[in-house]
Amino acid sequence: MTEENTVYHVFAVSDGTGATAERVIRAALTQFTKPVEVERFGEVRTVQQVKDLVQQAAEQGAFIVHTLVTPDLRRAMFEEGRRRNVSTLDLMGPLLDRLSDLLGTSPLARPGVYGPMTEAYYRRIEAIEFALGHDDGRHPEELEHAEIVLVGVSRTGKTPLSMYLSYRGWLVGNVPIVPGIDPPEILFRLPPNRVIGLTVEARRLATLRRARAQRLGGQLREYTDLARVREEVRHALRIFHQHNWPIVDMTSKPIEEAAAEIVAIVEQKDIAE
After folding, report:
1. Which of 18, 56, 171, 265 is at 20 to 30 A from 103, Cα to Cα?
2. Which domain holds residue 199?
3. Could you tell me the strand order of the sheet in which 195-199 lies?
4. How many domains does the chain fold into?
5. Residue-level pLDDT at 212
6. DSSP per-residue codes, 137-180
C-alpha cells in the first residue's frame, strides 16, 4: 500500500461511553485530509482491558486518545503504551490535575460522570463547531444552514455573540460588513428574520478599535478614525434597512441581553410566518 493510500487508525478509549474522546478526535481531524478510521472503545474499567487495547493498537499501528479518569487506568495506559511503542494521548489527566490544584481538592475519579450524552449535548457541540467554522465570513455558501447570521462592521461583537448563542444550541454564522466589499450574495437570499444587523455608536466603536489597535501594537489610523468609523456605521445601517434586517444596538448591551433580544426576534418572526 502506498503512503497516499494508507489508512490511519485512532482509538477513542474511555471508562465512560467514549463519545467525548471521539468527538474531540473527529473535530481535530477536520483539519486533515488523509483517511483516518476512528474506533470507539467505551466502558474500559480494568487494567487488563487497557493492556488488551494497547496490544490491539500495537498490532494495527493505531494511536490511542483516551478520557480515562481513574488514576490506575491512566497510569496503565501510559506504561503499556510506552512498553509497546504505542502513542497515547491523555485528554483528561492534565486538565484534572490543573483543576485539582486550583480547587484544592482531588477529583472524584468516577467513570462516566461527564454527563449524559443527551440530544441537547450533541446539539450544543454541533452548534459550537458550526460557529467556529462560519466565523468572520468563512464558508458563506453554507450559511443557508444557519439559524442566525450576525452581520456588522468590525468590533460590533459578532464573534462573542456567535459563540454565546452557539453554546445555547443555535447554529450561528457571522459576516463582516467591510467598506468597498459587497456582502456575500447568499445573505440577500436568506429569510430576513435569520439575518441580524449589529451596530455600535460610532464614538464607542472608535474607542473599542483603539483598544484593539494598542493590543496589536499598531496605529491603524484609518481603522480607528472617528469620521471613518461613523461612515462605516452609516454604511452598514443602510444595508440593514435596505434588506429589512432587524437591528440590535450593542453600544452598552451585555452579551446575555443581546442574545436574548436576538432569540426573541428570531422566534417571534418564525411564529408570525
Report:
1. 18
2. 119-272
3. 172-176, 148-152, 195-199, 247-249
4. 2
5. 79
6. G-SGGGGGG-SEEEEESTTSSHHHHHHHHHHTT--EEEEE--TT
Number of Cβ atoms within 10 Å of the Cβ of 273: 7
- Contact status, residue 196 vs residue 151, Cβ threshold 8 Å: yes
pTM for the complete prediction?
A: 0.59
Using a CB cutoff of 8 Å and minimum separation of 24, what contacts does 105-113 make? 107/69, 108/69, 109/69, 109/70, 109/71, 110/69, 111/14, 111/15, 111/16, 111/45, 111/69, 111/70, 112/15, 112/16, 112/17, 113/16, 113/69
C-alpha angle 99-103-105 in degrees, rounded to nearest 5: 95
What is the rounded distance in angstroms from the CA atom of residue 17 to the CA atom of residue 12? 10
- SS3 for 40? strand
Q: Tens of pLDDT along 61-115?
A: 999 999 888 888 989 999 999 999 999 998 877 777 777 777 777 766 666 555 4
Looking at 68, 103, 138, the residue that finishes a domain is: 103
DSSP symbols for 73-108 = HHHHHHHHHHHTT--EEESSHHHHHHHHHHHTS---
